[in-house]
Write a structure and sequence with these properties.
The two termini are about 30 Å apart. The longest helix has 27 residues. This protein has seven helices and no strands. The protein is mainly alpha-helical. Helix 4 packs across helix 5 and helix 4 packs across helix 6. One of its GO terms (molecular function) is iron ion binding. It is a multi-pass membrane protein. One of its GO terms (cellular component) is endoplasmic reticulum membrane. It is found in: Membrane.
């Protein structure tokens, strides 16, 4: 947020940024649009958790190579989301060669967070409409809506 000029009316009245009511909060009495559950996400995330529970059951008998594979998949998937979907495609913060983009596309799939196009769209909308009803990750709607709904 940019600093206010000293000769502004807010400085004269003693109102600071924290005590002001914004337009968004004054319109909260309006009815919100009905929330929709994205059933594909419900199915996929449920299946992922069931597979994870089965994997936890098998974990005590896992080989050292399996442990290495688990750690690598975790790191690669995280890199696909943070370096690829987030920094490269959503914010366009750097340019990448075609082989690196292909690699980031593949490892982004390992994270199971939708395809790059949906992830990028949702994250850009999240930044544009942060903490409003248009924000797909609005924390005010609760954790269930952030995960399952749109």
């Amino acid at each position: 947020m940019a600093p206010r000029r000293l000769d502004s009316t807010a400085a004269q009245t003693g109102i600071d940024d924290l005590s002001e009511t914004s337009i968004a909060t004054s319109n909260e009495h309006k009815t919100r649009p009905p929330q929709q559950i994205v059933w594909l996400n419900v199915y996929l995330i449920s299946a992922l958790h069931l597979m994870a529970l089965y994997g936890l059951y098998l974990l005590p008998w896992a080989n050292a190579w399996t442990w290495l594979w688990i750690v690598q998949c975790f790191c690669w998937g995280g890199m696909g989301v943070t370096v690829g979907a987030h920094r490269l495609w959503t914010h366009r913060s750097y340019k990448a060669t075609w082989p690196l983009r292909l690699y980031l596309m593949i490892v982004n799939c390992m994270a199971a967070q939708n395809d790059i196009f949906e992830w990028t769209r949702d994250h850009r909308v999240h930044h544009k409409y942060s903490e409003t009803d248009a924000d797909p990750h609005n924390a005010k709607r609760g954790s269930f809506s952030r995960t399952w709904g749109g």
